[in-house]
Amino acid sequence: FNEQMIFDSIKYKNNTAFESLYSYFDMDNIESLFNYALQSHNVEALNYILNSGDIIPGKNQMIQLIDLVSKVYPEENEKNASYEIMDFLFSIKTNFNSFINDNNENIWILAIKNQNDYLFDKLINENNENLNFEDSNQHTPLFFAINSLNPSYVKKILERKGNPNHTDYMNNNALIYAVGQEVWTQQDIEDK
Questions:
Q1: Is the entire prediction scored with pTM above 0.85?
Q2: What is the DSSP secondary-structure string of 13-74?
Q3: Residues 174-190: pLDDT tens digits?
Q4: Nearest by Cα to 51 from 4, 7, 87
C-alpha cells in the first residue's frame, strides 16, 4: 500500500479504488485525508469517510462541507453522495447557525442561491430555526428567495414564518425587492 495511491484516487475521483484502499489507510492521518477530499470536492469520498464514523468534522471543515453540499451536482452518483452527506448532517443535529462561510452566507442562503431543492426542502421540513438569518446587508433567506425568482421558495418561507416585514440596511423590506429592480419606498408602492 502506497499512501499516495489513496490521495490520487480522491483527486481523480476513482471512488472504487478509494473505497478498496481506505481500510489500509493510517487512521492517525484521517483528518488530512478528509481535508484533501474537501479540497478536491470529492463528495463521494467525503460521504464514505463520514459514514465510516472515523471522523467528526471540526468547525472549519463543516463550513467547507456545507458550502460543498449546497451545490447542485449533475452526476447522479455525486448528487446521491451529496444528499447522503446532508442527511448525515441533519441526523447528527448540526446547529447550522454556527456555520457561516467567508461570504457571510449560512446554509439557507447557500441552498437558495444554488437552487438546491433537496437541501432547501430539508431545511424547511426539519430545521427552520434560523429562517430569519441576516447576512451582512441584513438580507434574510426571504430576500434571496425573491431574488432567485423561485415562487415556491418564497411561499414555503412565508408559510414557515419568514418575516416579510424585516428591513435591510437600506430600510427596504422583501416586498420592495419583489416589485422589481428599482428600489421603491413603502409610500411609493401605496401611491401606485
A1: no
A2: T-HHHHHHHHTTS-GGGHHHHHHHHHHTT-HHHHHHHHHHTS----HHHHHHHHHHHTS--S
A3: 887 777 644 434 544 35
A4: 87
